Structures are given as structure tokens and as C-alpha cells.
Request: fold
Amino acid sequence: MNIVFIPIVPMKIRILLSFLISASVLALTSCSNTGSEDAGEMRGKIGMTCMDLTNPFFKLIANVMEEEAAKHGYRLVALDGANDGATQNAQLADFIAQDYDAIFLNPADSKAAAEGVRKAYGAGVSVFTFDIQINHEEVKEMVTSHIGSDNFQGGQLAGKSMMMATGDQGEIAIVGLPEATSCILRVAGFKDSLEKNGSKLKIVTELNGNGNRSEGFAVTNDILQAHPNIVGIFAINDPSGLGAYAAVEKAGKTDQITIVAFDASPAGKQGVFEKKLYDTPQQYPRKMAIGTVESFIKHLEGEELEKRVFIPCTHYYYETAVNDETRVSEQW
Reply:
């Protein structure tokens, strides 16, 4: 039998060792902090959830929010809502339970998110929405402040471009995302532009492309089967617009069909330069991210906030893309 002798350590030494180990762990944790604040100066934490963190648009917003929050002593935790309202409501519940100081929310489902916002409001946790608003009149007022693109105005720009590109003649289709208020507003602005200008274009179908390339491709294939004579497609963002282009190219109809998208993402800018997209009204996600953090800080300092702030969109044509350094460097 092997006998193991365990040394008896006096109580005072054990307490000292325990203290030293704990101090070492805290030091390592502090050294691993990637924020710009010195160790020990973090004031709190912010929870952020968006509809799709794999989308470059939201990835940029998350990164900028993290940088800006750190400047003010806050750690931002960004989560992917996976395009699911129930998932986001669970994330909001976790933020509340873990005593986060604020929540930055981009709702995957404008209606479903009302449940999570109501709970946050009841718990005294301020919610700031960005890009997409809550689609519930009562709960919308529980949101401390919203900042986003002027999606209706951007949709009007898209309508103007579609009329120009098609000569205002023929059948067109829309690849939308009806779960998101921002995309609903883009389509509404697009239709408003056609109506106010007495357009002769006829919208023959609207299908949900879920805001991504693969489903944009799939629904456009369906559109081309049902409506082979269309002359244009308005897609509510660049991923679905580029997916639509891939389907149009596969069908050999790039000379027949013009695609107008939305966002002016790095891929969208390149798509315009390569003449896959005619226009992609430009959003400014960096301004959106900085503005959300600024609103949070002003709120903490007791300043009165504008309830809703909308950033105007601008056309992004081939002529814009040619000399655009951000396109070359693949930036927003």
C-alpha cells in the first residue's frame, strides 16, 4: 500500500494562499479585458441582440457599438437573434435577470419583440431600438429611443431608380421581408414613389426572401417561373438582391431584368460596380451604432432624447461606385 502524506498547512497560510490565488485570477481577468478602459473602470454592461449577427450590416453595428460603449466604460455583449422572435425574447429575459444596465435591440420580429420590451420596461431596464422599430403602439412608447434609417424615404429612392432603369414600362416583382418594419417601410416607400409619379409599372408579385441570398435566389426562381416577362425586381436588402441576381443570371435574363436592392453594403457596392444591381439606396450603420450609444449616455446624464431619429438614405449608382474608396476597401 502506498501512503500519501498530506502536509498540514497552518490556517493563516491557507488564508494567504487563497487570497493570492483570487488576486491572480482577477488580475488575469482584468488583463484579458479588450475594452479601452483601464482595469477596474468598467461602469456596467449593455446587452445587444440583432436579427442576424452573421449579416455584415449587423456585425459592423455590433463592433462599433462595442468600441463606443467601451469608451464610456461599458462592456457590450452582442447576441445573434437567429431571425427568431422567441429567441430574442429569451435573450432579453437573460439580460434583465443578469442586471444589464441597458438593452440595444434590433427586433427579428417587430410584433413578437413587444413581449420582451414590456418585461424590460417593467424591470426598469432601458431599451434602445435600432434599425427596426417595435410594431406595437403601446410598447413602442416603452422604448427609450429609436434610431434607424429613413426606410420609407430610401424606398422612394428605389422606386425612382426602378422607373428610370425600366423606362417605366412592364411588370415587376418585390422580394421582401414582411416580419421587419424597416422592410415594410421600404416597400411602402417604393410603392408610394410609383404611385405619386403615375408609374406604368405593374407589381405582379411580392414574395418573402427572408433577407438572405439563398432564399432570395429561391424565391426569384419561383417568380421567374410564374412571371417570365418581368423587367425588374426590388429586393429589400443586398443579400436578397444578389440572390435574385444569381437566379436571373442562371435564367439568362440579365439583359431583361433590372435589380434594385437596398443597403449599399460592401457586397452591394461591388454588385453595383459589376452592374449586377442598378441601385442600392445607402444606409449608414456606423452612424446608427454611434447614435445608439450616444443616446444611452445622454439618457444616463438626464438629457431629454428624441423619441425617434431617422437617418436619410442616398442613391448608390454605378457612377458612385467607380470612385468610391470604401467599395475598394470593402467597407460600409
